[in-house]
């Protein structure tokens, strides 16, 4: 799994086009202020180490939120951080599980619609920790 984490002033997205037929229908537009945004890429090998990946992802995201002083996070599936891709079903399930684990700890968690290309705008802060990449 790859995590590309940003400390943002805002993240705006709008669904553009469905790219997975099995995805739920969604037409969303949302602007989320003062949030961490994470581009998540799940890899084929993650399917065989699901529990370890889930635990490590949640731990890393909690660490990042603490470092940047945020209580809100946006999880965005982004299948462009590696040449290895998990199945879409696994990617959707692991993002849902990460969301549930973080929410159970009192974190405000949002997700962009899975299975869609989205148009987005992001204002990333300038500090060094405003941009962090993690490989799990």
From TrEMBL:
GO terms for molecular function: ATP binding; threonine-tRNA ligase activity; zinc ion binding. One of its GO terms (cellular component) is cytoplasm. Residues 1-136 form the Threonyl-tRNA synthetase editing domain. It holds the Pfam family tRNA-Thr_ED. InterPro entries: DTD-like_sf (IPR023509), Threonyl-tRNA_syn_edit_dom_arc (IPR015011). This is Threonyl-tRNA synthetase editing domain-containing protein. It comes from Methanolobus sediminis. The lineage of its organism: Archaea, Methanobacteriati, Methanobacteriota, Stenosarchaea group, Methanomicrobia.
